[in-house]
Amino acid sequence: MSVLSDHGPTEGPYERWVFSETHGRPWAFPSIAAGGTGIHSALMEAGGNPADLNYADLRIPPLWKPGGVQPEITPFAFRDAVTPATPGAGLRYRLNFPVPVETWTADYQVADDPEDWVAPAVQPRAIVAVIDDAIPFANRAFLGSDGKTRISHCWLQAGVAKARAPVPFGREYTNGTIDQLRLDNPSDENHLYQDAGAVAPDMVELGGHLKRHGTHGSHILGLAAGNTSLFTGDTQGDDIQIIAVQMPNTIAWDTSGFGKEMYMLSALHYVFERARRIADHFGVDELPLIVNFSYGWGAGRHDGQSPMEIAIEDLLAKRQALQSKTAIVMPMGNGFADKMHARISEAGFGGKKYNIGWQVQPDDNTSSYLELWFPEGFDPAKYRLILKPPPGYRLDQKAVLRIRGSDPVQFTDIHMDGQIVGQMSADHSRGNRWRFMLALIPSTYCANQSRRAPAGRWTVKLRRKGHAPEIPQGDDLLIWVQRDDDPAMLQSRGRQSYLVKPRKTGSETTQPPYQKYKDEIPGISGFGSVNAVASSSHTTRVSGYVQHNKRPADYAGSGRLHVQENQDPAPVGAQTLIVACSDQSPSRPGIPSTGVLSGSRTRLVGTSAAAPAVARLMVLNAAAGRDLTDGLDGMAALHSSEKDNGNTQTQHKARMGDFTAPPVTR
User: According to the model, what pLDDT value does residue 94 have?
Assistant: First the structure.
């Protein structure tokens, strides 16, 4: 059971799992596994002000606050050793990942002007921003016609801090600093990044990724803002400035989706605030701003009401009221074909029980997570969750989770051979929607631990009493498995778990492999494999297509569909808005972009590469005074190999959205 005081951190299922030594901490990001750094990041919700906590050493990053109104969600960081003299009653916050000591600014002065910033020679007409990893800020692809960088501001959140700075942690590089670094290192960009302190192999949060040929960040920044012969169409002129944020490696390592929001939200506020400073210098109103954020995770509410989605919506709605040409572009995700999502309708429940398989792969060095979400306002008190291990294994006691009493967060540990191998939890998210969650430790012995979870097919059983409420008509119970693949740069050695039908029920219709749309959408389906951070109503969601045939990429995420009683699908919740090229052809997966060093190239597969192509087109439109979607085509036609009926058209729109962006690379 979770008992909450009237102030201090809230303990949710991920917090309990990640921060507890007896649960998942040994396999968390290294700084967490080692016991933390003494400096925490956190989020305060419901419009609260962290300053009211009265913590002696508390940092609120640069915030964009039009009219001085406190944001709905506020990121902040503080030293663990400092306790409030007079805690603010009723103020609660969620702890996120620790902040490295080396990145903590000794003298944080948020009102200071960024050091060495130089006003651009040409007044900007638009700004493009990229939030990602390993940003190659010295690459020639981002120079203007005068040989000066167009990167106005760049914040390395895990950079080694200067003694005094207008950022609370990490290091900020302005255009003047970048240009001077290029003058000091005219022929060796590797040495430039070393000289700038942008690489630190002994710091896991920063690392030496800018020594690589290509990074996710180099690819995304190139697509969104680069000028080389690789890109088609108009070049980005001197009237388009760039703002970049490099997030810590912590963001990509952890597979829970938890604990990253402070860094993510701080990055967005930084972009909005620095864009405001640029406009202020030229004495103009808010400039058009296109932000590419090619990041996300799989599990979550998917209804726009998670803390990060509320924060994104809050920022977008307020800025669009001041400048309509404001967009945050995000990928739909790459999980369509990975069997990471399932829906359970009343018809599919089968009376009082429902079973589904959860396949945990061997040699998985990271924790695995599964979430089951009930509809908003639904009371699951008469439902219970049972977890059965793979054949040949036995738990110390039956793993059963049921809601008891009125506590909004409840836990049951899973024991095997006297040790904890997992956790079951129920929590009432934001007081309006219940979630059942499962967490398992890695399936292999690692991190000097003598315990592991069995690999194989776990069985997830949902049971209900005879008088339990039925699943509402037009709605579903929804299951998502959290992303758990291995970020290549970080070598976490995670392996993706997935959902499996426990047994075949009745005959199944076999369709030709060249047909992407089925006559009947199965319960385990990619329809609903939406980026869990991208469900806000104002977010620009981008999925991917294959340039060769204008068909959806096999992996590209899709809007959710509810199968009605007549078996016709209907769209529900966040849907694809735009598709862009993410594969050039089946034999040439991915699309090219810039590498780390000037003149180099790399390829990236995924909707993460589709999103910045849209951001590129949008900022060019904004600078030219056109509508953001100018030049985009409508939804691509249904392929001739598909059956043409209402069913397939609905599936097609869920995957291909309203607009089709042309390719931006050769």
Answer: 84
